[in-house]
C-alpha cells in the first residue's frame, strides 16, 4: 500500500504529435519564454492531489479534462513536463511502470485474446520466471472474485461477456498483489445493469484489500459509488476534493454544484435587491447569511436543489407552467419540470399530489437550503475554501 502525492503536475501535448483531431482544445495559460509558438493542448495545468494510504480516490470530470493523462502520469506511462509524483514520499521520476507495483484496469480490458483467462492471470509471473506462484495466486483471486469465477478460467476472452472480461482483467491485477490500483473508466463498455453489478463487485474487492486506488470516470454516480473521496476535474485542473457529502453540501462552484445530483441543481441567474433575489418578476426572500454574501445588484446565481424546491400550496408570486412530470416510484416522489420566467426548473412533489402537464404553479424553496454563486466566476459565495 502507498500514499500517492501529486505535486504541481503540468502536462501539455503538441497538437502535431497527435494523429487525430480531438475535442476540448485549450491554449496554455503560461507559455514559456523562448519557445516557438506552437499550438498545443494543456492536458494538466498544475495538479496537486494527495491520495491517502488505502483510500479509493475517484477522479471525475467531463471527457477531455485530463483524467486519463493524470492516471498515466501516476502509472509512469507518461512523464510530466513539470511537477512530480511521489509514492510514500519517494519521487518516482524515471521509475518505469513495471517497477511501480501497480495494477491497471482500462476500459478495453487489454486481455490477450488467444490465451484462456487462467493464462492471462498468470502471464505476469511467467514473464518473471515465477511460475510456481501461479496456482496459489489464481486460486486466491478466484476465491475473492466469487464462486463462479473459476468457471471463467478455462475460457478465452472473446467467448466471455464484457462483464466477465472485466472481472478477468480485475483478477489479473489482484494476482500481482499491487500496492496501487489504477482504473480508467473500467465499466464504460458495459450495459447499465452490468455496470452497476460490476461496480458493486469492484467496490467489495477494494473494501477487502484496502489497496490505495485511483478510479477515473466521467460518471458522477460511479464516482460517488466507488470513491472514499472524489476529485472533480475540469480543463486540466482539480476544482475540488472531498467526500460526496462535502461536494454535495458545499460545492466550490456552479460546475461542481451541477455535476452532482440527479436532476441537477437549479441555477437561476439574477441579482440581489433588499432582502431578496430577483429574476424578472420572480422574487425569493433570502435568509440573512445569503443576503450578506453579495452586494446589491451584483450578478449571482441562486442555487436550489430539486429536493428543496416545492410547489406552493397557495398561488403566490411568479407562476410557472408544468412541462413534464417524472415519476420516481423508488423515492415515492415525482420530479416536476417547470417553465418559469424563461427558466427551466425542476421541483419535487409528493407522489400523490395530482399534478399534470400544463398546470400553472408557483414555487416555494426551502430557505435554509439555498446556495449563492458569483454570476461571473461561478464561485460559491458562502463556502470559504
Ligand atoms: N498523446 C496525446 N497527444 C495530444 N493530445 C493529447 C494526447 N493525450 C491526450 N491529449 C489531449 O489532452 C486532453 C486531455 O485528455 P485525456 O487525459 O485523455 O482526457 P480524459 O481522460 O479526461 O477524457 C485532451 O484535450 C486530449 O485531446
Ligand atoms: Mg480518458
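-> sequence recovered:
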Amino acid at each position: 500500500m502507498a500514499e500517492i502525492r501529486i505535486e504541481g503536475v503540468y502536462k501539455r501535448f503538441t497538437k502535431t504529435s497527435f494523429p487525430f483531431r480531438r475535442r476540448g482544445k485549450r491554449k496554455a495559460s503560461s507559455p514559456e519564454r523562448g519557445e516557438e509558438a506552437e499550438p498545443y493542448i494543456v492536458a494538466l495545468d498544475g495538479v496537486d492531489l494527495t491520495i491517502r494510504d488505502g483510500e479509493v480516490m475517484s477522479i471525475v470530470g467531463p471527457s477531455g479534462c485530463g483524467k486519463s493523462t493524470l492516471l498515466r502520469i501516476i502509472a509512469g506511462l507518461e512523464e510530466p513536463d513539470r511537477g512530480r509524483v511521489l509514492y510514500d514520499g519517494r519521487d518516482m521520476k524515471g521509475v518505469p511502470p513495471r517497477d511501480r507495483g501497480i495494477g491497471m484496469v482500462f476500459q478495453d480490458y487489454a486481455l490477450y485474446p488467444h490465451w484462456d483467462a487462467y493464462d492471462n492471470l498468470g502471464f505476469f509471473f511467467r514473464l518473471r520466471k515465477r511460475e510456481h506462484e501461479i496456482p496459489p495466486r489464481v486460486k486466491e483471486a478466484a476465491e475473492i472474485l466469487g464462486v463462479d469465477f473459476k468457471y471463467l478460467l478455462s475460457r478465452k476472452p472473446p467467448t466471455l461477456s464484457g462483464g466477465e472480461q472485466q472481472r478477468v482483467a480485475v483478477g489479473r491485477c489482484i494476482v500481482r498483489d499491487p500496492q496501487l490500483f489504477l482504473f480508467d473508466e473500467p465499466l464504460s463498455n458495459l450495459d447499465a445493469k452490468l455496470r452497476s453489478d460490476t461496480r458493486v463487485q469492484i467496490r467489495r474487492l477494494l473494501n477487502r484489500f484496502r489497496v490505495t486506488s485511483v478510479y477515473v470516470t466521467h460518471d458522477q454516480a460511479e464516482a460517488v459509488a466507488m470513491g472514499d473521496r472524489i476529485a472533480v476535474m475540469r480543463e486540466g485542473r482539480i476544482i475540488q476534493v472531498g467526500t460526496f457529502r462535502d461536494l454535495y453540501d458545499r460545492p466550490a462552484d456552479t460546475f461542481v454544484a451541477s455535476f452532482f445530483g440527479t436532476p441537477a441543481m437549479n441555477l437561476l441567474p439574477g441579482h440581489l435587491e433588499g432582502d431578496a433575489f430577483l429574476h424578472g418578476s420572480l422574487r425569493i426572500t433570502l435568509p440573512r447569511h445569503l443576503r450578506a454574501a453579495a452586494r446589491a445588484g451584483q450578478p449571482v446565481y441562486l442555487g436550489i436543489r430539486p429536493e428543496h424546491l416545492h410547489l406552493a400550496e397557495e398561488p403566490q408570486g411568479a407562476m410557472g407552467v408544468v412541462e413534464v412530470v417524472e415519476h420516481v416510484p423508488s423515492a415515492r416522489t415525482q420530479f416536476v419540470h417547470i417553465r418559469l420566467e424563461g427558466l427551466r426548473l425542476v421541483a419535487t412533489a409528493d407522489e400523490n399530489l395530482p399534478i399534470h402537464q400544463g398546470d400553472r404553479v408557483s414555487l416555494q424553496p426551502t430557505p435554509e437550503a439555498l446556495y449563492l454563486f458569483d454570476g461571473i466566476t461561478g464561485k460559491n459565495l458562502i463556502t470559504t475554501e
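The first strand starts at residue 4 and ends at 14.
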